[in-house]
Amino acid sequence: MKERKCRNIVGPQVRRLRSGKDWSQERLASELQMHGWKISRCGVARIESQEVWVGDFETMLMADALGVDMRELFPHFNQQQPLYSSVNKMLDGQVKSLMAPDDILSGESKRLTASMKFPSGEKPIIPAKNIG
């Protein structure tokens, strides 16, 4: 069986907000079409089930069509945990590019960037650890 990948974090909120309006997926697709997005009921279903990536512009259209502030499309994160941890947990550890701040400031980031190739021999700026 193929492993399921979460491609967006807005899908569950889209479903909740759509259902709260008693709209079908077909109705939401129609509303989005009136906002200029060529999308079908199947496309809405794939967003809600987190099967497809949703861009920033599409997120803006979704919020406008649903009549909500764009922030309502994003999940509420535990303020006691670092954001990177919450997002990585939500996406079942799929996000390999997220690093803990302590790892970013440690030699681990230097080791990773040493192996990366940058245009014209440029190197990234790695912030010094704040002492104080």
**At the third CATH level, what is the topology name of the largest domain?**
434 Repressor (Amino-terminal Domain)
What does the main sheet amount to? none
Radius of gyration (CA) equals 19 Å
Q: Roughly how much helix do the residues carry, as a percent range?
A: 40-55%
Order of secondary-structure elements:
HHHHHHH
How far apart are the termini? Answer: 52 Å
CATH class of the largest domain: Mainly Alpha
Instruction: List unreliable stretches of 5+ residues.
Output: none
Q: Which whole number gives the mean pLDDT?
A: 81
Mass-distribution shape: elongated
Continuous helix count:
7
Q: How many β-strands, per DSSP? A: 0
Domain count, please report it. 2
Tell me the name of the CATH homologous superfamily of the largest domain.
Answer: lambda repressor-like DNA-binding domains
Strand content: under 5%
Structural class call reads mainly alpha
Q: Which CATH architecture of the largest domain?
A: Orthogonal Bundle
What does this protein structure show overall?
This protein has 132 residues and is an all-alpha fold. The chain folds into two domains: 1-98, 434 Repressor (Amino-terminal Domain) (Orthogonal Bundle), CATH 1.10.260; 99-132, no CATH class. Helices cover 45% and strands 0% of the residues. It is built from seven helices and no strands. Helix 2 packs across helix 3 (41-48) and helix 2 (25-34) crosses helix 4 (56-66). The longest helix is centred in the middle third of the chain and has 11 residues, at 56-66. The protein is elongated and about 50 Å long. The N and C termini lie far apart (52 Å).
